[in-house]
Amino acid sequence: MRSSKTIPIEVDVLLKKYTQLVRSALPTQIHGIYVYGSVALQAYEPSKSDIDFLTLLRSRPTKNDIITITNIHKKLTSMNSLAKRMDGMYIPTEDLGKPNDEIPPYVHLASGKARQGFWDNNAVTWWTVKQYGISIHGPEASHLNIPVCWSDVVETMKYNLHTYWRKKSQSHWLYLIDDVMADAVCTLCRILYTLECQNIFPKKQSVHFALDIVSANWHPLLLEAIDIRKGKKLAFHLPSRWQRAKATQSFIHYMIDLCTQKHF
């Protein structure tokens, strides 16, 4: 069953081919295929966005199933270069809504390549699937009875800020890279927007929201992040790449403190 939400044409072509391949190769295993992330939030950016998907399996995959899944994605990548931007998970229905620390390793896809281990499986992912997921095959996402509530999302945001981003703030070197800098700024703005408005929003929309919240001295950094996300040729809003990297590091500390003071 397909949702009435709009999927960009090039993504739709890819997903139809993927669905055809995986259902043909694993006819008794596929319970449902869902798209979440920027595509489901109607914020897909052709030059930047990943294609986030969740494939629910009726049972844990066998070794042969895993080989089959790996080969499907190799074939798909050879047929369509956009397949390199597929990020997703193959989760058995018995593990629906469970976090990584409660389930065994599973097959996941990163940049179009299949691996076994742990991926983007957290309350934010499950909430986004539950509220916005687009069904490519199988029951509607809203009918999956995913056991996640908003307090789980808040706890995940708290962990992201106090553990993941605090660790990422220890050095500024990474933020000399345009995409890494933009992703850090946009993600932190989305955490703020999520906590303020109790919903999940696209990254660019979150940055525009943050422009009305954070002090003006951060605006050049945010505007530069937006330009990078849009794929614009950079006209630096800050004096140098070095200063921008240092500013990004300071912005991470600022956002951790701001969100903590307001919401935790």
UniProtKB/TrEMBL annotation:
Stored InterPro entries: AadA_C, NT_sf
Point out the signal peptide segment.
none
Superkingdom of origin:
Bacteria
GO MF terms held by the record: transferase activity
Domain named Adenylyltransferase AadA C-terminal: residues: 177-255
The reply on keyword Transferase is yes
Family matches, as Pfam families? AadA_C
Gene3D superfamilies (UniProt xref): Beta Polymerase, domain 2
Key words, A-Z: Transferase
Please state what the protein is called: Adenylyltransferase AadA C-terminal domain-containing protein
